Amino acid sequence: MIKILVTGGRGQVGAALCQRAEKMGFAVVWYDIDDLDLADLDQINKIVMEHRPKYVINCASYSVVDLAESNPEDAYRINCDGAANLATACSNFGVTLMHLSTDYVFDGEGKLPINEMMPVNPINIFGHSKLAGEEQIRKHCEQHIILRVGWIFSSRGNNYVLRSLRQMREEKEVKAVDDQIGCPTDAYDVARVLLAMVQQIDCGIEVWGTYHYSGAEAVTWKGFAEAILAAVKQQPDIVAEKIVAVASDDWPTRAPRPTNTVMDCYKILATFGIRQRPWRAGLVKVINSLTELD
Ligand SMILES: NC(=O)c1ccc[n+]([C@@H]2O[C@H](COP(=O)([O-])OP(=O)(O)OC[C@H]3O[C@@H](n4cnc5c(N)ncnc54)[C@H](OP(=O)(O)O)[C@@H]3O)[C@@H](O)[C@H]2O)c1
Fold this sequence. Notes:
Mean pLDDT: 96
Strand content: 15-25%
Bound molecules: NADP nicotinamide-adenine-dinucleotide phosphate
Largest sheet: 6 strands, parallel
CATH class of the domain at 3-157 and 185-216 and 262-278: Alpha Beta
Number of strands: 12
Radius of gyration: 19 Å
Order of helices and strands: EHEHEHHEHEEHEEEHEEHEHH
C-alpha cells in the first residue's frame, strides 16, 4: 500500500485528494495548519519521521491573491518558507515531494498557451511567493514534482463558483471580467492527476520536474460565470438573469491579474499519458453536490 502524507488537507485540493486517495486504497495521513504549520521545520521533520510516507503532497498554501498584496510576509512564510521546509524534510528522509503551484507565476502577456519552458514573470505578490516556493523545492529536494494548476473550483473554500452562486442569489445582473482568460480546474480533477502521477512514479519512472495541468477549454471569467448560471438557473433561489461583461480596468482589485494564463498541458500528456478533462463536467458535479443531487 502506498503511503501519502497530505498537507493542507482541509483545502479544496487537499480534501478532494484525501477522499480520492482513500477510495483508491492509498494509506493516507493528512494535516492542516492546526496540527502542522509548514513554517515549522522541526514539526515537519517530526511528523515525516513518525509516519515515514513514501510521498508528501503539499496542498497547503496562502491562496488569497488580493490579501497577499498587504500581507507579503504571510504569503512568503507559507508559499516560500513552508515549501523550503517541506522540501528539506523530504530530502532528509528520502521522500518524494509533490507540490502544487500556479499559473500566476506567469505575466499572462503572451498569446499562446504557456508551456513549462516559457519564462516566468509574476505580476502580483501571490505569484512571486509561489515562484519563490518553486525555487526552494528545486533547490532542496531532487525527487520532486511541481504541478502548476489553473483556476481551482470545488464545493468548499473560497472559489469563483461559490462566490458567483452567492451573487446569483442576490442580483439580477452579475458582473464578470471578460478580458482575462484561463482554464477553470475542478479540485477533484487535480486530485486524479496527482494520484495518477504518484502511481506511475511508484513504478520506477524518474521524471522529476515541473508540469502544467488545467481543465480543458479556455474561457474568460465571464464565460465561466455564464456556464455557472446555465447550470443553476432553474433553481428557485436564483434571481440572476444575465452575466454582464466588465473590463479588468473597471474592476479594480488589489492584486493585478495576468491576462492570459491558458496553459499548454502537452508535457504531462507525453510523460504520464494524463489528458485534460473538460471542466464543465466537473462544474456540473460540484453544482449537483451543493444541491445534494447525485
Ligand atoms: N485556488 C486556486 O484558484 C488556485 C489556482 C492555482 C493554483 N492553486 C494552488 O493549488 C494548491 C491548492 O489550492 P487550494 O485552492 O486547494 O488551496 P486552499 O483551499 O486555500 O487550501 C490551502 C490549505 O492550506 C492551509 N494552510 C494555510 N497556511 C498553512 C500553513 N502555514 N501550514 C499548513 N497549512 C496551511 C489552509 O488553511 P486555512 O484555510 O486555515 O488558511 C488551507 O486549508 C495551492 O498550492 C494553490 O496555490 C490554487
